[in-house]
Amino acid sequence: MGKSIVQKILEKHIVEGKWDPGNEVAIKIDQTLTQDATGTMAYLQFEAMGAPRVKTELSVSYVDHNTVQIGFENADDHKYLQSVAAKYGAVYSRAGNGICHQVHLERFGKPGKTLLGSDSHNPTGGGIGMIAIGAGGLDVAVAMAGGPFYITCPKVIKVNLKGKLKPWVAAKDVVLKMLEIFTTKGNVGCVFEYSGEGIKTLSVPERATITNMGAECGVTTSVFPSDDTTKAFLRAQGREKDWVEIKPDSDADYFKEIDLDLGELVPLTAYPHSPGNIKTVKELDGMNVDQVCLGSCTNSSYKDLMTVAKILKGKKSHPNVSFVIAPGSKQVLENIARDGGLTDLISAGARIAESACGFCIGNSQSPKTDAISLRTSNRNFLGRSGTKSAQAYLVSPETAAAAVITGKMTDPRDLEKMGIKYPNVEMPREFYIDDSMFIYPLDTPEKIKIYRGPNIGDPPASLPMPDSISGEVTIKVEDQITTDHIIPAGSKMKYRSNVPKYSEFLFEVIDPTFHDRAAKIRDSGKHNIVIAGLSYGQGSSREHAALCPMYMGLKAVIAKSFERIHTANLINFGIIPLTFKNDKDYNKIEQGDDIEIPNVKNVIKKGGGLLVKNKTKNTEFEVDYTLSERQKRIILAGGTLAYMKNQS
Ligand code: MIC
Ligand code: SF4
Question: For position 166, what pLDDT does the model report?
Answer without folding.
Answer: 98
